[in-house]
Amino acid sequence: MVRVRASQVEIEAAVQALRDGELVAFPTETVYGLGANAQDPAAVRRIFEVKGRPSNHPVIVHLDSPRFLHRWVREVPQAAMSLAERFWPGPLTMVMPRAPNVHGVVTGGQDTVAIRVPSHPMAQQLLTAFGGGIAAPSANRYGRLSPTRAEHVREELGEQVKVILDGGECQIGLESTIIAFQGQRVRLLRPGAITAAQIRQVIGELLIGADLESPRVPGGAAAHYAPTTPMIIVPSGEIDARAETVSGGGRRVAVLAQRLPLRAHKYVTWINAGRRPEQYGHDLYTNLRTLDKAGCQRILVQDVPDGESWTAIRDRLLRAAASVSAADDSGTMAVLP
Ligand code: TXA
Ligand code: MG
After folding, report:
1. Of 4, 41, 237, 291, whose CA is between 20 and 30 Å from 251?
2. pLDDT by residue (tens digit) across 54-105?
3. Do 182 and 77 fall into the same domain?
4. Total domains present in the chain
5. Which of 59, 170, 212 has most ligand 1 atoms within 8 Å of its beta carbon, as the pocket-test mutant?
6. CA quadruple 260, 263, 267, 268: dihedral, nearest 10
């Protein structure tokens, strides 16, 4: 269920909380954000405390439109104007040179700031009513799965957040595409619903992935967006056989697949997430949360197809699996860090 608009009372409470330096969780079309007034460094510091996130990680500033972009960005590249025109409001975040007054706690001490104009009507309502920038990372504890429903936020951060606006399920379910402007070059730092091909159609060249000069993207840290159950990715055709082997001896195993099992497996909790990338991405974090709670010793994920519509999904799966990349697939428990 998607709930599109909040009541006036809810919005007023959220705006008041932001003005008071409190945190507000709110839905966006990608995932839920944990928001603070971006001009209140103490409030932004609270985000880090509540998430348990290292304090030198930058956060995205959310705006209701590009109209006050110059308050946050020193110099808006021409290519960014074109991309804003085409993709905002929407799931695109652009890292640009920061304006002098943008606080270091927002930028992680870097000379750049990440800006996004979300399209979710409730996020828009909040941003417009607040009238300023809202600094917001995803509303999860550091290193865990991003929340795509209000109850995920309640479960994980509950008491510490003054207001949680409930917009039902996020439409996309995966975090925004992030690009950075570095002189004349534009680089993709995190794949998302807006694909590299779509960006190239607007600006021509787009480099892929971080390089040594790139700004830091902690979301790019190897183990991230991870369930607590060790997770491994299995070649597509081998998923049934692997589920059978790993569950041998009565070990409980969770499977995230794109089809039904070929036969019933004892001790296996199987989710068929389907073959459509939009639906798969929309459900991904909820599915991983469900499997994570199923009391299994391992999550096996059927590898996803190649192709650009699966790029963001593949990226999140690889990160979620990274914490156990050293594990073998024989059914031996992984040694977790
Ligand atoms: O879809 C999204 O982007 C969601 C919603 C709430 O907008 N937000 C989100 O925020 O995913 P977060 O903090 O979980 O991920 C944002 C990523 C982080 O990896 C952060 O390091 C990076 O953006 N980032 C923020 N500012 C940056 C900067 N100035 N330079 C490089 N990376 C930056
Ligand atoms: Mg995050």
Report:
1. 237
2. 988 999 999 999 999 999 999 999 999 999 999 999 999 999 999 999 999 9
3. yes
4. 2
5. 59
6. -20
